[in-house]
Write a structure and sequence with these properties.
The protein is an alpha/beta fold and 239 residues long. The chain has helices spanning 9-16, 27-32, 38-44, 50-53, 75-81, 127-141, 156-165, 184-189, 193-206; strands at residues 70-71, 82-83, 92-97, 106-112, 115-122, 148-151, 173-175, 210-212, 224-230, 233-238. Helix 6 packs across helix 7.
Length: 239
C-alpha cells in the first residue's frame, strides 16, 4: 500500500501489521534526492497537514476523531494567546458576524496587527443598530471601508446592504465563506474561503497574535478541520 499516514482504519491496520515492510519517505529524503528544496519545505510548514504529508507522521493519538476531524486550536493554544490588556498597532480592521437575536449573538471583532478584540456583542434583532455601531466605529477611528468585513449571507445581507449604501462605509467587503478561496494558492489547498480564513487565523495566533481575554474565544477550540480528497489532491475542510 502507498499512501499518506491519515488515521484511517485500513491504512493504520496495515501499518501496524508486522507482516508489512515499511518504507517511509519524508521531506528529508525528498530534499536529499533533489525532489524538494529546503525553501519549498519551509514554505509548506505553514500549510495544513505538514506533519502528515511531509513528515509522514500519523496525527497524534487522541487529537483526531474517528471521522478524521482535528481541532483547529487546542484550548491551551487559545489560552496562551490571551492577554488582559494591550495596545493595538498597525492594521485596523473590523469583522462583523450577524445573528438573528435570541441565544445567537451578533459579534464585531476589531483586529490590529498584534491584537484581536471582541468590541461588540448583542442579541438585538434590529440589524440597523448593528450597522450604526459599525458606522460609528469606522468614523471614530478612521477605519477604511475596505478594512470592514461583513457577513453577507442570510441576515448579514441586511447589514451589508445598509453599510454599502452609506457614503462613509461604501466599498466594504461582503464575506460569503462558501465561495472559493481568494488566492490561487488557496484554491489548491482549501475547499472554500471559510477553510482558508480559519487557517489564516490559526497561523496568526500561533505566530504570536494576541486575543484580548474573553471567554467567547474558547469557541475556537471547538472548530475542527480535516483533509478531503478532490481527485488526488488533499484539501482542507472545516466542520
Amino acid at each position: 500500500k502507498v499512501g499518506n499516514p491519515w488515521d484511517e482504519e485500513h491504512f493504520v491496520k496495515s501499518f501496524k501489521d508486522p507482516s508489512y515492510k515499511k518504507v517511509i519517505i519524508d521531506y528529508k529524503m525528498a530534499i536529499e534526492e533533489g525532489r524538494l528544496t529546503p525553501e519549498y519545505v519551509e514554505e509548506m510548514r505553514k500549510q495544513p497537514f505538514f506533519d502528515v504529508l511531509y513528515e509522514c507522521n500519523f496525527p497524534k493519538s487522541g487529537v483526531i476523531d474517528e471521522k478524521g476531524w482535528i481541532p483547529l486550536l487546542s484550548r491551551e493554544e487559545v489560552e496562551k494567546a490571551f492577554i488582559k490588556e494591550a495596545k493595538g498597532f498597525g492594521i485596523n480592521k473590523l469583522g462583523a458576524d450577524v445573528a438573528g437575536g435570541g441565544r445567537n449573538k451578533s459579534v464585531v471583532v476589531q483586529r490590529r496587527t498584534n491584537l484581536a478584540e471582541i468590541i461588540h456583542r448583542t442579541n438585538d434583532p434590529d440589524t440597523m443598530n448593528l450597522a450604526e455601531f459599525v458606522i460609528n466605529k469606522r468614523s471614530s477611528e478612521g477605519i477604511y471601508p475596505a478594512d470592514i468585513n461583513v457577513d453577507m449571507i442570510g441576515l448579514g445581507k441586511g447589514v451589508y446592504d445598509i453599510l454599502n449604501r452609506e457614503k462613509t462605509t461604501s466599498g466594504i467587503h461582503g464575506i460569503n465563506a462558501g465561495l472559493e478561496p481568494y488566492t490561487e494558492e488557496g484554491k489548491t489547498m482549501f475547499i472554500n474561503l471559510r477553510a482558508q480564513m480559519f487557517w489564516e487565523l490559526r497561523k496568526w495566533i500561533l505566530a504570536g497574535g494576541k486575543l484580548l481575554e474573553d471567554e467567547a474565544w474558547y469557541q475556537l477550540s471547538k472548530i475542527k478541520y480535516r483533509q478531503k480528497l478532490e481527485g488526488r489532491k488533499a484539501k482542507m475542510q472545516i466542520m
